[in-house]
């Protein structure tokens, strides 16, 4: 099985809002200050060439380009269109996809036409109802942004329902102190999303208290019950959809055979780094003077050597002992790399959110059995 490659492109390193929790502008990493505010067409062309070279050195099953920021729509419609044209890699044998992550505040009919033209999957950042969302997602004058995001979502939803958009999804950064039921119902019922991703806060073993993990488990458990009560297969929720599919699997062989996904970050100047989740854990990796690799001077193998065997072995670290006896680890794979880091001894452990995720897996296992499914023997031993 080949490699799935995801490149998160910082097509803008500027934003029209100022989220208090933003790892990019308000976190310890300040590399954006040394980068261009907008990605050039030359850099976009360099990204396309880099992917073609990667396809020549390894078997790529899929390539996904995520247009990210900052706020990617601040690139402007003309330049955004030209950049998408430069990123076209139709001569690559791998399945390719293009997506954009936006706050939707700038979305109008012309933007929707651009998304439709290039078959772009659209993701919108929204953290729940207005009082939750506006507590953190504010503009540069400190004003809440929920109303403007919701207006953009309405336009996108109408385009989706009319068949003009390839797909539309929401990304919600979990605040475990919030009412998960309110968050879920607002995103699904009031905003009309059918695809939702709950993103865990960027954290590791050095900055996360057990109480926070317990609250995360409470949040996920409550959101999970809302999703299960909907009993609607057209609603996909990450991480629940994949976890339920795993809980229903009659065996583990297929999950153990899952291919590898490698995520690369590409700054607006064409320099390469690991994905954004490491910015809070290891900000020094993203310093301009540490960015030795670019889309022009390196190959995919160089990236894997530098970050898989170098300062970030979490990209390829083996399972810790606690995971080897846990059947869930065949699916969670010990968690996201940044969440596995323990600064005490520079160790890579199971995800700091392990206990919260176990609660979800256990509930889904029970749900499968309650609804007439068989419980694989391997699951019965997992608590």
- Assembly state (oligomeric): single chain
Q: Tell the overall outline.
A: globular
Q: What is the CA-based Rg, rounded?
A: 21 Å
Which sequence of strands runs across the widest sheet?
Answer: 7-6-5-4-3-2-1-8-9
Output the CATH homologous superfamily of the domain at 3-256.
Aldolase class I
CATH architecture of the domain at 3-256: Alpha-Beta Barrel
Q: Could you state the order of secondary-structure elements as H and E?
A: EHEHEHEHHEHEHEHHEEHHHHEEHH
User: How helix-rich are the residues, as a percent range?
Assistant: 25-40%
Question: What is the CATH class of the domain at 3-256?
Answer: Alpha Beta
Distance separating the two termini: 31 Å
Uncertain residue segments: 253-257
Query: What structural class do you assign from the helix and strand content?
Result: alpha/beta
Task: Output mean pLDDT.
Answer: 90
**What is the β-strand count?**
11
* Proportion of residues in β-strands: 15-25%
């Amino acid at each position: 099985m080949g490699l799935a490659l995801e490149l998160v492109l910082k097509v803008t390193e500027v934003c029209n809002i100022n989220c208090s929790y933003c790892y990019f502008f308000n976190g310890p990493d300040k590399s954006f200050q040394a980068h261009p505010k907008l990605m050039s067409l030359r850099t976009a062309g360099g990204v396309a060439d880099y992917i073609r070279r990667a396809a020549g050195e390894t078997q790529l099953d899929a390539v996904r380009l995520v247009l990210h920021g900052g706020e990617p729509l601040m690139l402007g419609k003309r330049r955004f269109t030209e950049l998408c044209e430069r990123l076209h890699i139709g001569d690559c044998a791998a399945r390719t996809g293009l997506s954009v992550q936006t706050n939707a505040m700038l979305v109008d009919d012309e933007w929707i036409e651009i998304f439709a033209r290039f078959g772009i999957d659209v993701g919108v950042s929204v953290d729940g109802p207005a009082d939750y969302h506006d507590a953190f997602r504010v503009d540069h004058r400190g004003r809440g942004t929920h109303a403007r995001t919701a207006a953009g979502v309405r336009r996108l939803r109408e385009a989706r329902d009319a068949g003009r958009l390839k797909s539309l999804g929401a990304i919600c950064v979990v605040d475990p102190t919030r009412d998960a039921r309110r968050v879920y119902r607002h995103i699904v019922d009031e905003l009309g999303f059918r695809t939702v991703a709950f993103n865990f806060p960027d954290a590791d073993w050095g900055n996360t208290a057990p109480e926070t993990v317990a609250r995360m488990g409470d949040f996920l458990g409550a959101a999970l019950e809302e999703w299960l009560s909907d009993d609607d297969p057209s609603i996909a929720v990450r991480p629940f959809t994949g976890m339920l599919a795993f809980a229903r699997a009659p065996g583990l062989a297929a999950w153990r055979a899952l291919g590898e996904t490698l995520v690369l970050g590409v700054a607006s100047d064409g320099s390469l780094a690991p994905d954004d989740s490491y910015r809070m854990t290891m900000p020094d990796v993203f310093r301009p003077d540490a960015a030795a690799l670019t889309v022009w001077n390196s190959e995919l193998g160089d990236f894997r050597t530098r970050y898989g065997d170098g300062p970030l072995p979490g990209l390829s670290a083996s399972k810790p002992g606690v995971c080897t006896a846990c059947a869930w680890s065949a699916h969670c794979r010990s968690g996201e790399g940044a969440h596995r880091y323990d600064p005490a001894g520079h160790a890579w452990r199971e995800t700091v959110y392990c206990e919260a995720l176990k609660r979800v897996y256990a509930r889904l296992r029970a749900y499968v059995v309650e609804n007439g499914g068989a419980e694989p023997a391997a699951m019965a031993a997992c608590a």
